[in-house]
Task: structure prediction
Amino acid sequence: RNTMTHEPILPGAWLGLLGGGQLGRMFAQAAATLGYRVCVLEKDPHAPAAAVSEMHLCAAYTDRSALEKLGEKCLSVTTEFENVPADSLEILAEMTKVSPAAKAVSITQDRLDEKSFLSSIGAPVAPHCLIASAQDIENVDENLFPGILKTARLGYDGKGQIRVKNKAELTEAFNTLGRVKCVLEKMLPLWREVSVISARNAMGEATTFPVSENEHRDGILAVSIMPARISQEQADKARSIAKHIVNSLDYVGVLCVEFFILENGEIIVNELAPRPHNSGHATIEGCISSQYDQQVRAMTNMPLGDTTQIQYTVMLNILGNLWFKPDGNKFEPDWDKVLAFPHAKLHLYGKLDARKGRKMGHITCVGSTPEEAMKCALQVCDAIGLPKPEHI
Ligand code: ATP
Ligand code: MG
Result:
């Protein structure tokens, strides 16, 4: 098997997926639509992706024999989360085509490496410094206060970060985070948070989706509006930075770039995710090709699809919180009330246990105008008790 050629991998072939979450589920659905067969490696027997895939290797990502089975069976393997052990990708890469490559994934696994890489290619990042010792705290530049201390590795949904106003608070935060390698970032005056999803194939073809405008609640994405309500110039700039990033990484697959737009209009790259992204769910209904279609096409050396947006979308994330009554008792939300809105597309990930903060599904509200999509979203929120978008 020659994994270096750019021959197309035709439908009917097995594709491998490391990870079993909702991003993997929607990838598997897109792959099945194109006639591929999907094998998932994931230790959770009830994994959302495994439930819609033809084969499930129920094992840890580090399980050598499971990795060998996956590599043996699949002509191409991808991932759906960023913290997949780089060693596992390397073991697979000896047997089959792996995208994204371990090298690109490992850069995004460490905030400091990621920022150094971004700076090296001229992409704007927040002022920051490494905090790994008492000495680093001693030497810290006072201009970084007020700032946010973030663990360099394994942070997600705002976990592993603490806001600090001065050296004393920085010391305390560093201790709270377990004195692991951290990055101190200057707190920036944010106007909007947006993201751009890009896809690139091994032949070097690269595309970007329209910019998504993202609203977080308690550190978790709550609402995405596509296209973002920013100037054409800002949108073009964000998309061109995203393209520059995937080209510079020689990236194959789907990558999300999260941006801050500052009050003065400046665009800063916040972070990268080497996979499809929550803020791109609406590409399923909103665009000619979705981020999941692109992931399948990129990993099979196929031409990429058109990312043009064909209808306006407002995406509402559904967290497990929706299952809880004010008194703490649980109930199943009235999904029929969502489906009563013909422009609301309900996606549930099939997770058995609704827990607070757990991503259980999403609803994409579509419209032929931005107002129509937003109106539908507001009505759906009212109907089932989801928190409403704040920036209407
Ligand atoms: P996720 O993986 O869910 O995107 P995360 O845990 O990796 O999140 P970040 O994206 O780094 O965390 O930060 C979470 C949120 O905190 C951002 O979306 C933003 O609202 C805020 N934030 C982070 N860094 C800064 C900063 N330098 N200035 C102002 N706000 C910030
Ligand atoms: Mg983030």
